[in-house]
Amino acid sequence: MTATRAFLPVTLPEPERTPALAVHLSPLLGLLIPGAGALIGPVAAWLLFRDRSRMLDEQGKEAVNFQISVWLYNLALGVLLFGLFALGLLGGVAGSMLGRPEAGGVALVGTFGVFLGLVLPLLLVLNVVPLVFMVLAAVSVSRGEPYRYPLTLRLLS
Membrane-crossing residues (predicted)? Predict the structure, then answer.
């Protein structure tokens, strides 16, 4: 535990619950503004409420860190997807150049299979799990309990 977290109250005072709820639900802005909206919402809410209390500052940082983490995980998945596509394309081209179009077809089908079996499920998880964690965070802060997102890179501290 860091020194700043050691002295935070165990429960959120009643006046801080609604702003904390807004901070944790603000990534839903991403449904209206795809891409950056999920990050703009928590950053704006955190900047708006962070001076009210240390607890709101901590909850805001938590929400922003989580959204940055989700964005980075999606970026890594995008790089993986691009690599798989390039590999399948290279296999197809190499097979055709060698006079073995069936080898190219196998490479393309294999790439498509990896996409359906690995990348697509990961993409679904990376877009559904954050919604579940946001709901858990909202329920937690509405009860007055601070929330810490799992699998989060703590970039803001």
Answer: 28-49, 70-94, 106-139
Sign of CA dihedral 54, 2, 147, 128: positive
The single-letter DSSP state of residue 30 is: G
Cβ(26)–Cβ(45) under 8 Å? yes
CB 24 within 8 A of CB 134: yes
pLDDT along the chain (157 residues), means of 10: 53 90 91 83 94 94 96 90 80 78 74 78 87 95 94 92
Show the tokens assigned to 121: 């499920």
Place of tokens 């944790």: 24
* Domains of the chain, residue spans: 13-142
- Distance (Å, whole) CA 68 – CA 90: 33
Q: Where are the alpha helices (DSSP H) in 28-100?
A: 37-49, 54-97
Overall size of the chain counted in residues:
157
In whole angstroms, give the CA distance from residue 59 to residue 23: 7
Report whether 45 contacts 60 (CB < 8 A): yes
State both tokens at 145: 């309990």
